[in-house]
Amino acid sequence: MEWFDGSIAVAIEKCRNKQALFIVYVYNAGEKxxxxxxxxxxxxxxxxxxxxxxxxxxxxxxxxxxDAKHFANIYPTPVVPAFYAIGKAGTPLKIITAPSGITAExxxxxxxxxxxxxxxxxxxxxxxxxxxxxxxxxDDLEGVEMTLEEKQKRAMELLAKKKAEEAEKELxxxxxxxxxxxxxxxxxMKAREEQKDREILEAMEQRKKEKAENEAQLKRxxxxxxxxxxxxxxxxxxxxxxxxxxxxxxxxxxxxxxRIQVKFPNGSTLIKQLASAQPLQVIVDAIKEDGRHSGSFxxxxxxxxxxxxxxxxxxxxxxxxxxxxxxxxxGLGRMGLLAQxxxxxxxxxxxxx
Length: 353
What we know:
This protein is α+β, with helices and mostly antiparallel strands and 353 residues long. The protein is 48% helix and 16% strand. It has seven helices and nine strands; from the N terminus they run αβαβαββααββαβββα. The chain has three domains: 8-121, Glutaredoxin; 166-215; 257-347, Phosphatidylinositol 3-kinase Catalytic Subunit, Chain A, domain 1 (Ubiquitin-like (UB roll)). The chain has helices spanning 8-18, 35-46, 66-74, 104-125, 148-234, 281-290, 333-352, and strands at 21-27, 56-62, 82-86, 92-97, 257-263, 269-275, 297-301, 306-308, 323-330. The strands form two sheets. The protein has a five-stranded mixed beta sheet with strand order 6-5-9-7-8. A four-stranded mixed beta sheet has the order 2-1-3-4, sandwiched between helices. InterPro entries: Ubiquitin-like_domsf (IPR029071), UBX_dom (IPR001012). It holds the Pfam family UBX.
């Protein structure tokens, strides 16, 4: 016999759903096990339940267990082992015990009688089947004689009505789906708006936090500046440094010879070793002879910066000894411009006469 592993409550619920016979076998185990238990267990193990035309759920309860105690409160078990066959209404149909032993033949005979009683009760409780005959949709009006054309017309009307009902049903379902879709869209839009509002609030909180941090930083800087000013005010004033002395004027040193370096606008130089008694015109002639510069020019002494325009003076008189750097500047210079202006005035006067 196949035993159910679940609880009594689950077994009872399954019996109700399947209209099955409920079997409960109470037995001893361990130290309480008797020869009758061993014999009864053997009969149940070797029992071929397929030859009994009945649905059943069988459960085993060991004496002393909680389930066995609950079962004994409803169905007293003075003799153990005991085999209970319980019907649909919860009434025991048969209780098979073995106070003096049990045989397979005796158990089979008594259990078969229980099965017959149970099946008879089930069959009596079933409602009688009502046979229905299929009728044409066009013949639904009993007692009304209709021609073939009328029947066809009636069938077409019923078919059109059915199609209209199906179309209406589909339309209602489509409307329902559209309403649900709109609700989902509104819910999604609401969720997005709420998310946007949360982001705006978070951004405002972040800006507020940054502003507070900036104000705190500015306050700390101002406090530090104030402390620095107070600390400087406590220190003794440092006397102002004396004004720098004027750079000494370097006086030329009289020498027999002098070294003159002429710098051209392109960065090149012309170096001449001349006698200090020679006039400035010697340098002008040397520049023209060199040929690196064509056109008008004038000379400027670098230190101190002075335009050299008196070509008759000696190099010693001009302070170019023992060495000097002279710049060659393209153009006429101050004296050249004056000479040009005087010449133009003379030409104008001569033309007027």
